Amino acid sequence: MSRVCFFISSVLLLVNISLGQDLNTTHGFQDRHMRLAGGPSPNEGRVEVYHDGQWGTVCDDEWDIYDAHVVCQYLNFSEATSALDGATYGEGTGPIWLDDVKCRGDESDLSLCESAGWGNGNCGHGEDAGVICKPVSDPWSNSSLENPTTHHAVNHGTALPELLGALFDSGHDCDLQIAVRVDGDKADSICVHRLILSLDSVLNGSLADLHIDVTSNCSHYVASFVRYLYTRQINITSSSLQCIHGMASDWGLKQLQEETGKLYSWVLPQDPTFQTQLSLYEYSVRVANEAMQRACLRYLAWNFEALVLSPAWTSSVPLGTVEALLSRSDLVVPSESYVLDAVESWEAARGGASATEDRFDLLKHVRFPMIPAEDLYRLQSPRYQAGRLLGFQFSALRFGELLGELVAQRKACTTPRIYTGKPWSFTFDSEEAQDYRRRKFFFRNETRHDTLDGSFSTPVYGDVSWSTELAFQNKDCTRRELCVSAKLVQSDDCKQTEVAKRFVFENKLVLSCAGRYVFHVEDFNSRGKAVVPDIWWSAYPCNSRSHVHQVVVRPKYIIALNGTEEQQE
């Protein structure tokens, strides 16, 4: 034990000497180094850049949240929460090194972003840019989705984490063995220090028979997990998340278990093959973690179209997951016909309908009344007869008779999903939206437009006309440049008809990340407005500048039951 103490004391002495040397250093800044100045706390202030032997500032022209992210991540904060202009933290001194900065958000420093170049600009210090970074106490770290090796750094250490990590790595004077069993067979053991583990109240009472049971795909992460017991720090990737969570659960490490559970939303968009998402969902079902199940299933539902197009749909999605998805009304799909095609392709991969329908009937989850009559007409197989009849009935009945049917049958099959195809949605042009977000205007056919708007109609027992508008600065937004605000309203003449009075609408704003995956769905309120107050607090992360914005109409029928009103989707 004395040797252990001597080892720690020696390393402490070495570190203290090194720290003392660093504190006495007053120069030696590297070119392009950045710092924050003038702020009330370390995570906010005026952005200053070191170049050519001198500190200078950055002009706020074109300054936005993506530029702020680069600054904050350079300074080891997870991300920015605000990009500020107008010398919010006071006017700086010296040169204004950068102007017209346009970052993607994943650059390592501002010099790698598009700009006017060093010292080129037309600004005064009254336009010095500033940022507010997410405080270090927040658990989220930098997570660029473009890099599959991105890790999330979990740090629960309170003292000597680096020193204890070095002690574990060295293996000096270890006096306790942890058996490692891979796929049920003992494969190895890890030598640890009884004193270190005994400091944990959860582990102290069970040091006699320590073992770790993992599958072969998790065996690579055992050493990192044990090292966490020393340092309370661990780097987690999309590949290791499930393994680390499982080991934390087995060992009763609640803090690590909760932290890894929070990371599910972070890793879900990282795998375009959907293998990770499906594996995490199956794991969450196996360990009965309802929060993880909801996060995984919602992502799969919002990205159902991409899932069906992936090889995983016909090779890796089990029946239970298919049924869980088909039962949801938040499937984001072009149409209900797409859902039927997905069912047929899944069944075909398993030998066709005749080979599967004895065990289950997925057609009961298809909402035939939501399929257009022309598509129903093309369904000639006898197995579609009941669904076709229900769909034709829904399309052909007069509205009064249809209400009677809805009251009598109360069928969930009349509930629409989130249909992004025509005529139920309107998609804003992504290039126009990006120009409008940055400049507050855009050009279409060489004509300048100061509002980003559009119009369309939906066939709800007679056309209902809609007008919609997209904005990026609005009085409802909590921070400048960070929010998306959309309006979607009916024309006044549509609201006055008796048929229209039998409907309400639960409309949606669907946001896609660079057209690759849906990362957020927001409800429109009763006034026809949907606001995402901070794009970085969305349901799933998106580190791209390019967003696709779609507004989707979802009608609900108001039916009378025993003299009261009820809404039937």
Q: How would you characterize this protein structure?
A:
By secondary structure, the protein is an alpha+beta fold. The chain folds into 4 domains: 34-133, Mac-2 Binding Protein (Roll); 152-239, Potassium Channel Kv1.1, Chain A, CATH 3.30.710.10; 294-414, no CATH class; 418-568. The protein has 21 helices and 26 strands. Strands 1, 2, 3, 4, 5 and 6 form a 6-stranded mixed β-sheet that branches. A 4-stranded antiparallel β-sheet has the order 14-24-21-22. It has a 4-stranded antiparallel β-sheet with strand order 17-18-19-23. The chain is flat, with a radius of gyration of 29 Å.
Question: What profile does the largest beta sheet have?
Answer: 6 strands, mixed
Helix % is 25-40%
Please state the overall shape, judged from the principal axes of the Cα atoms: flat
- Report how far apart the termini are: 70 Å
Low-pLDDT runs: 13-28, 137-149, 478-482, 559-569
Q: How would you classify the quaternary structure? A: single chain
Structural class: alpha+beta
Q: What is the alpha-carbon Rg in Å?
A: 29 Å
**Portion in beta strands:** 15-25%
Number of helices: 21
Overall average pLDDT: 79
Number of domains: 4
Number of strands: 26
